[in-house]
Amino acid sequence: MYKVNNKVMHALHGLGTIESIEEKDILGSVSTFAVVAFDKMQVMVNLESRNSSIRIPITSDGVEGIMDHLKNCQPELPNNHNQRHKMILELIKAGDIEKTCLVVKGLTLLSQKRDLAARDAKALEQSMRLLSEELGNAVGSEPEALHETLTQACLENEKELVNA
């Protein structure tokens, strides 16, 4: 399934490239690992684990569906900052692009109501980076160029609800 030079999405680190696939003997058990390179680091991921934290990125065919999901999803983040932070981490660690959309939209909407706490601001930055890297890879665009587009998508239907 995974091959050297394939692009992969890591739940926490974003878009990376598989540099090598190796078998490692750990405590008498042989497992297959992928060495994934990111901008400033490498991560070794167990490919045999059900929760390997990497997946194949979406293609250009999936971008419209993700943008529709971002516009129409209704995230419900807890008001309590500790509960909210725990929920956000769980959503990001899931590695699912639709769950990342929930974090981006929820925190973007919250930022329109009030200044974000430091943890929330960092989580918004991380989730926005993950989403923009994956979508940028799919459409051949720089991730930074997508930040404003993603923010506007988050706010689009909210304006319609306010004006209705």
Structure description:
The structure is a single chain. The chain has 164 residues and is an alpha+beta fold. The protein starts with 6 loop residues before the first strand and ends with a helix. The C terminus is likely disordered. The longest helix has 22 residues. Helix content is 52%, strand content 20%. It folds into two domains: 49 residues, Thrombin, subunit H (Beta Barrel), CATH 2.40.10; 104 residues, Methane Monooxygenase Hydroxylase, Chain G, domain 1. Helix 2 packs parallel to helix 4. Strands 4-3-2-1-5 form a five-stranded antiparallel beta sheet. The chain contains five helices and five strands, in the order βββββααααα.
In short:
The chain has 164 residues and is α+β, with helices and mostly antiparallel strands.
Keywords:
Thrombin, subunit H; disordered C terminus; alpha+beta; 164 residues; 2 domains; 5 strands; globular; Methane Monooxygenase Hydroxylase, Chain G, domain 1; 5-stranded antiparallel β-sheet
Let me know the average pLDDT.
92
Spatial sequence of strands, sheet with the most strands: 4-3-2-1-5
From the coordinates shown, what is the CATH architecture of the largest domain? Up-down Bundle
CATH class of the largest domain: Mainly Alpha
Which structural class fits the helix and strand makeup?
A: alpha+beta
Number of domains as seen in the coordinates: 2
CATH topology of the largest domain: Methane Monooxygenase Hydroxylase, Chain G, domain 1
Number of helices: 5
Question: Going by CATH, what is the homologous superfamily of the largest domain?
Answer: CarD-like, C-terminal domain
**Could you name the ranges where pLDDT drops below 50 across 5 or more consecutive residues?**
160-164
Helix content: 40-55%
> Could you tell me the radius of gyration in angstroms?
17 Å
* Distance between the amino and carboxyl termini: 48 Å
DSSP strand content: 15-25%
Shape: globular
Major pleated sheet: 5 strands, antiparallel
Which series of helices and strands comes N to C?
EEEEEHHHHH
Number of strands: 5
